[in-house]
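In response to a reviewer's request, we include the raw inputs and outputs for one of the modeled complexes. The four entities were modeled together in a single run.
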Amino acid sequence: MQIKSSIKDIAKRANVSVSTVSRVLNNSKYVSEDLKRRVLSVVEETGFKPNMVARGLVNKKTSLIGVLIPRISNNFFSKLIEGIEEVLQTYGYNILLSTSYNEIEKELEYLNIFEDRQLDGIIFSVTEFTDQHKNFFGETVVPTVFLGQKVETLKKYPYVTIDNIKAAYEATRYLIKQKHKRIAIMAGPEKDCATGDNRLQGYLEALKEAGLPLYTSWQTRRYHTIDDGYYAASQIMSQSEKPTAIFACSDQQALGAINYLREHGYRVPEDISVMGFDDVDLATVFRPKLTTVKQNPVDMGATAARLLIDQIHGNSLTALENLVPYRLVVRESTKSL
Amino acid sequence: MQIKSSIKDIAKRANVSVSTVSRVLNNSKYVSEDLKRRVLSVVEETGFKPNMVARGLVNKKTSLIGVLIPRISNNFFSKLIEGIEEVLQTYGYNILLSTSYNEIEKELEYLNIFEDRQLDGIIFSVTEFTDQHKNFFGETVVPTVFLGQKVETLKKYPYVTIDNIKAAYEATRYLIKQKHKRIAIMAGPEKDCATGDNRLQGYLEALKEAGLPLYTSWQTRRYHTIDDGYYAASQIMSQSEKPTAIFACSDQQALGAINYLREHGYRVPEDISVMGFDDVDLATVFRPKLTTVKQNPVDMGATAARLLIDQIHGNSLTALENLVPYRLVVRESTKSL
DNA sequence: CTGTTAGCGCCTTCAC
DNA sequence: GTGAAGGCGCTAACAG
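The model returned the following structure tokens for the whole complex.
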């Protein structure tokens, strides 16, 4: 293919009409074997490829799915993408990837871009579901699946997530059962509902239930990066009153925390227990092996993608709420007092 | 916006022609303040958004860049994406993400999709540059930047990479200087040129130069995952003749290898040294801290994106070869004999 | 300055 | 079965 050829050109060369070409290209209507052959051979020769943009314009579909996540360099999210891509691919969709870095404005911005671009669907790992989000999803008509937290919208879009409150509650319960009484938490960033508010809530419930002390200086809210975990640990451990266990709301933060602790002479888990969340790839490679709340991001991504496809195909969805399993995995970074 | 409105509708409601609407929307030509205001207010009211697909059809640009990498869950590649997205975003481009899992057929498949979709550019982290690739890039006219290895094409596309042969050579040299004489290598997958062939070559050159033994049973070729590193280590260590050092061509593999070694009673680095490659986030969090060849993927991604933008803008590019710096970082996973 | 018109490349009635 | 014609939503000459 030298210069962009169009359906018209190949119609001419095959001595047929453009509609015939279109028909054989789409297998949309019966075309005599003769013409079909003629068209196909010209297509072959010229290496002709139909213009997907033009096609999209008339068909009103782009075969593109917008995927919006907070951060791609977090193993949890990249696994999510793996799951998403795997199923979308089999349905002929591609991924338009955007990252918000947990910034609400960026989320809104990308959401609008998704709409402008006429994307066929959206998979969205929300940070905080604000009124502006609600507005957007009230007005838009783009099939959507939310990932990572429960989201209530007028339009009734499904979401797939674990029960974050419960999971955090159970993780904290476990620590309590291990006789820990002074437990700190490193939660997600300030505005992050799922890994921030929800998990913090579960933690608080467990502490209250057990009648344990709640120090706000033992509660941090930071991004899910190793660096932020390191910093959060430094804050917590700079208090005069020190915890015997830290519940990190992501393995990334747990790793950063352990790094800090070790550099400052604490042994994990002998001096202080650290619980993670996610069970990323290296949770079992790291030493001590991370005790953590295992999620299955590949599955979650795949599930979300399937729910999206269903919506696009107009299938009635079975349920809005898709709670997926998680599991507390006890390994070496925590111990009983 | 209830039902999809078009430029036509808002032209009607504002009592102007479609071209006027188009003009104010694009700021393309001077429009009287009066009309402009009228149009803008209607746009405001209706929440009108121009259809990017239609726009793309006439402008022959999609503002979409195809990014093709082997694997997103590898920290090195996700960092690459971070760098790419950061600069593309400022130019109004979005990313169409695809992963090849190092499969040549998938690469070709996605490349074709990129072309079909009329993407404005391609950033491609090649596995192996085959004749089919060469064909594709000979016929296509899509601006491209190669990432991670030197690639020669007719069309003269730029590439950004470190000098893999040299880097591997130096890494191996270092091990040799540390008095290691029996050095194994865990290279990239069979068909991977950069992390496979090139790094293996650098390793071999260093060994030959030093007159050290070359055992093919000390050379593995596997994917850059923790699991594959684990497995590769098991293969190497099952030989009767055992190495005193392993040069892993990715930190992922190094991590997997160390995991294997420890599970099987070897201490790192006391019994066996392990050298990594990449310097991913957790190289310094892991214990022992990884001795590794540091790359800067965020920068590399950003550089690639800039080179692509230059191409798209028709700027003459300064150089095809963009060798970026790397650095051997000695930490704790290797030691002198 | 503004409106009319002709496409961009493709699909889809609608007649033949 | 096949072709001609209209239109998807937008932009860019071309007149006025």
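As requested, we also summarize the result in words. The two ends of chain B are 72 Å apart (CA to CA). Residues 16-20, 23, 29-32, 35, 54, 56-60 of chain B lie near DNA strand C (CB under 10 Å from a C1').
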